[in-house]
Amino acid sequence: MDFQAFQAYEGRAAAVGGAGKDPVNGPMIRHWCEAMGHPVPVDGSAPQAMLQVWTMGGLSGHAAGAGRSSAYEELLGRLDAAGCTSVVATDCEQEYVRPLLPGERITFDAVIESVSGSKTTKLGTGHFVTTRMEVRAEGGELVGTHRFRILKYAPAQGKAPKQTAGPRRPRPVVNRDNAGYWEGIRERRLLIQRCAGCGALRLPWLPGCDACGSADWDTVRAGGDGVVFSYVVMHHPPFPAFDPPYAVALVELAEGVRVLGNVVGVPYDKVRIGMPVRLEFLNTDDELTVPVFRGEG
Question: What does pTM read for this prediction?
Answer without folding.
Answer: 0.56
